[in-house]
Amino acid sequence: MGDRIKKLKKIRIHREGTNELTLSMLGLSIGGCLLWLMLDTKIPFWIFITVLGATWLMALNFYRCPIRYFNGDTEKLVVAPADGKIVVVEEVEENTYFQDRRLMISIFMSPLNVHANWFPVDGTVKFVKHFDGNYHKAWLPKASEENEHADILIETPDGQEVLVRQIAGAMARRIVTYAKESEECYIDEHLGFIKLGSRVDVFLPLTTKPCVTMHQPTIGDQTVIAKLH
Q: Is the pTM of the predicted complex or chain greater than 0.70?
């Protein structure tokens, strides 16, 4: 039990941030030194270093990637695919694939949240599709269909279909999806990563029982957001 708690507390840097963090550190260091030398200012050099260091730490915080494991049986459960807060829990008409009504649960991620995405259910990936689009603010209803997004359809072991949609926001300009068609997927595994503020929608059968409410905070791979029938 003690080893498990240690694992839950362990945090690493996401692989999507390795190059960005290295290049940003070099850029901030060189740029800061040149700016301080070029400006006719009496501001101490250590203040420049402190400001640049704080800026870099903000980027480091954005790319943090906690190691998490769901504790318990995952059968019929739908867990949060991302950190953030619930912005939608409602029935909607899903006309892209299902052509019927679905329960949609949406999670908005601010720039301060962890931006790694997890698989919300166990199953098999039926397809992965990427769509170019706009960059509306991620919490707006039209963002789900009009913004750049990636759709991942998962079939659970008992044959129920769950659609996960990664959505780019006004700041997010890159969606990374690790899910591969025909591969098995499991809760605890990373589905992908979205850079900067963004959103993840989950479309579920109407028989699904929601377990979250509006504005409720979520922890990716930990918060149970619904139970399948």
A: yes
